Amino acid sequence: MNCLMTAWHHHEAELRAWLRGRLNNPHDVEDLLQDLFLKALRQDKKFCQIENARAWLFEVARNALADRLRLMKEQVELPEDLVHEIDEPIPVDTLAQCLPRALAELAVEDSEAITLCDLEGLSQEDYARMKGLSLPGAKSRVQRARKRLREHLGRVCQVRFDEAGKVCCFVPRKP
Q1: The domain 2-72 is classified under which CATH number: 3.90.550, 3.40.50, 1.25.10, 1.10.1740?
Q2: Architecture of the structural domain at 91-169
Q3: What is the largest CA-CA distance in the chain?
């Protein structure tokens, strides 16, 4: 217990100054210091076995501060009239109607690269191994396939993109 009091005596002022720099309210600083002291006290004899008491105290203080700041985040209630119901489907969602057919019309190599890497989540590194390619070769193949799919979607589904590169609209193909 004596080692705790010695460590606390040596580091309390530095901890207080560190917390003051991060909290605006002096009462919150004192509350956090008290919580920190109690956490150290709960360690009982294990505290005396800690090699670097200062580092332990600052780590616990940092974690306690993060917890407190997370709880203190201001939450703003949104006004009722902010909710807007969407009557028509989002273009990118309905594009799924056109995608399978467009993929089937691509070269097998392109369709396979997009299906495995983009739709099924296979990493490009694993794709490279599977196909006996170098990683840069596999990345190039996937990029070329994406470019060809984008161009094909533009031709057959009249997909258009906004300034941010997101699908803004398209004309669905007849089955």
Answers
A1: 1.10.1740
A2: Orthogonal Bundle (1.10)
A3: 82
Cα 35 to Cα 38, 40, 102, 136: the distances in Å are 5, 9, 61, 53
Model pTM score: 0.45
* Cα gap 44→49, rounded to integer Å: 10
Structure tokens at 126: 């694993």
Crossing angle (nearest 10°) for helices 2-20 and 53-72: 40
**Residue 103: predicted pLDDT:** 86
Ranges of the chain whose pLDDT falls below 50: none
pLDDT at residue 136, as a whole number: 94
Q: What is the DSSP code (8-state) at residue 173?
A: P
34's tokens: 């008290």
The answer to whether the CB of 124 falls within 8 A of the CB of 139 is yes
Residue-wise pLDDT tens digits, 17-55: 999 988 888 888 999 999 999 988 888 888 888 889 899
| Domain segments of the chain as ranges | 2-72, 91-169
